[in-house]
Amino acid sequence: MHIGRPRLGGTAAPRRRGAADGAGFAPAGSCAKLGLMSQANPIRLFVTHAWEPDDDYLRVFEYLESARNFFYRNLSAPDKRPGGDKEAAKEELRRQIAPVEAVIALSSLFDANQDLVTFQLLYAQASQKAVVLLKPFGSQKPIPKALSDLADEIVDWDERALVDALRRQARHEETTRWDTIEFKLD
Predict the structure, then answer these.
(1) How many structural domains compose the chain?
(2) Residue 1: what pLDDT?
(3) How far apart, in whole angstroms, are the C-alpha atoms of residue 31 and residue 129?
(4) Structure pTM?
(5) 3-state SS record for 101-170
(6) What are phi and psi of 134, to 5 degrees?
(7) What is the overall mean pLDDT for the chain?
(8) Given strand 72-74, what is the order of strands in its sheet?
(9) Residue 177 in this model has a pLDDT that exceeds 70
(10) pLDDT tens-place string over residues 132-176
(11) Region label for 84, one of left (φ > 0), alpha (ψ between -120 and 50) or beta (otherwise)
C-alpha cells in the first residue's frame, strides 16, 4: 500500500488504487462501454500541469487517496518534460491526455501559465474528455470566464465533491450519497 506523496510519472507504475497494467482499457471516448469504476477498472485521469509538480497538483492526489472506494490511474507526468520546442511539449501533453477519461484542471495554474493550461483544456475538449475544474485552493478569487467555459463541472476543494464529479463526468455514475443534517427540535 502506498501512503504519502504520489509518484509523479503516472505511466510508469499504477497508483495504489489503480489497475495493475494498462491492458483492457476501452478506447478513448467510449466511457459508456467502460462500466462501473472498480479496482480492476480504474478511472484514468490527467491533472493539468506546467511541467513541474506544485502544491495543488500534489494536493489532488492527497484528496483522491483519502477517498474510500475510489480507484484511479494517474496518466499525467509533469516530470517528463520533453526536450525541444513548444510543439514537442504540446505533443507530449497530447500523448498524456489521449488515453484518459477525465481531466482535473487546476485553476491555480491559469494565471502563470495561461497558454499551457488553455491548450490542455482545449485538447481535452476536442478529444471529448470530461473536464473537472478545481477552484483556487484557499481563495475566494473568481475563476476567469475563459477557464470556466472550458470545464464540464466546477468543484471546490472537497474530497467528496471531487470524487463525485469524477464519477459523474468520467463514467456517468450517479452517487447515491445523501448528506445527513442533524438538528434539535425545541
Answers:
(1) 1
(2) 33
(3) 10
(4) 0.75
(5) CEEEEEHHHCCCCHHHHHHHHHHHHHCCCEEEEECCCCCCCCCCHHHHCCCCEEECCCHHHHHHHHHHHH
(6) -95, 130
(7) 80
(8) 72-74, 43-47, 102-106, 130-134, 153-155
(9) no
(10) 999 988 888 889 999 999 999 999 999 999 999 999 998 887 766
(11) left
| Euclidean distance between CA atoms 148 and 135, whole angstroms | 10
Residue 20 maps to a domain = no
Give the CB-side neighbour count of residue 135, counting CA atoms within 13 A: 12
With contact defined as beta carbons under 8 Å apart, do 53 and 78 qualify?
A: yes
Residue 109: which CATH number? 3.40.50.9200
Predicted pLDDT at 180: 66
Q: Give CA separation, 182 vs 51, 66, 160, 185, in Å.
A: 45, 25, 19, 10
Work out the pLDDT band at 179, boundaries 50, 70, 90: low
Note whether residue 96 is domain-resident: yes
Residue 60 corresponds to which amino acid? V
Give the C-alpha distances (Å, rounded to integers) separating 85 from 1, 88, 99.
38, 5, 23
In a domain, 46, yes or no: yes
Residue 185 lies in a domain: no
Measure Cα distances from 177 to 65, 72, 93, 121, 160 in Å: 19, 20, 35, 29, 10
- Domain residues for the domain of 147 are 31-171
